[in-house]
């Protein structure tokens, strides 16, 4: 049972105790949503072993184990957060403009909007400096309005003077199971939201990640995506049925024994991967899940995950929109 949701009156950064209290009271998507689905007893896909072998072989030998990447952060905003114009320079036709006019959206961007990897992975850069940095990283950004239950997510996000720009913008209703239009991308290549997939400090402190995680693999299948994904990102040569599709769900095998001397944070992640699994959301050079770059994480608290091979996972038969929670 969730407690009363605190009222958000000003922008609150993700790495604070105030944010922890709000997140602990939030229902992030309905209980019937795929991100909240208990898949611990779902049947294994017929070609699970072949798909796991393909995921493994596509990676270089030193990247064939699980990595916790310190990536996406977010800010909690009040419902009346002033809107700011943001230019979508790559995919305005697949962006939620939310009151803007193409190619510009109208998003609740506060002055302290964090951009991906800040502060844990950005060295001495201040938030203001990191907002304006021009680089070739993904630079995701996430705004969450707990009161109204909406999130806005962007990538290649950068502040230019008093204006903002991003490659794409996606809005999701946390009170609904509605997906993006079929064929549309989002901040993630699969067209999925990122916020509900992030491993957060507050939930790890409670002892379990209570949702599916966001998973990155090397290669995915062409012209194919599985519910709840809406988009693929693969070249025409990637036609093998043993390549995972966007939205494919992997589960940590029940037979994997979590060592008692591993950290509380690692245990929380692995318990979640057994119950909720992880959804393939993007392509990359690693086999990774996304962890918030919270500067409160204890040093090396996820290091043991790097000893877990891809072969400790299995691919399950994913549920569709009418099957709901199992």
Strand sequence of the main sheet, in spatial order? 2-14-11-13-12-15
- Based on Cα principal axes, name the global outline: globular
Strand content: 15-25%
Total number of strands? 15
Mean pLDDT over all positions = 96
Structural class: alpha/beta
**Major sheet, described briefly?**
6 strands, mixed
Please tally the helical runs, counting DSSP H or I stretches of 4 or more residues: 5
| Succession of helices and strands | EHHEEEEHEEEEEHEEHEEE
Q: What would you say about this model in short?
A:
It contains five helices and 15 strands.
Report on this model:
This protein has 326 residues and is of the alpha/beta class. It has a domain at 34-71 and 196-315. It contains five helices and 15 strands. It has helices at 17-24, 48-58, 127-132, 201-206, 264-275, and strands at 12-13, 66-70, 75-76, 84-88, 104-107, 141-145, 150-155, 158-160, 163-166, 168-173, 213-217, 249-252, 278-283, 287-291, 313-315. It has a six-stranded mixed β-sheet with strand order 2-14-11-13-12-15. Strands 1-3-6-7-10 form a five-stranded mixed β-sheet, with no helix packed on it. The protein has a four-stranded mixed β-sheet with strand order 5-4-9-8, with no helix packed on it. A hairpin with a 2-residue loop joins strand 8 (158-160) and strand 9 (163-166).
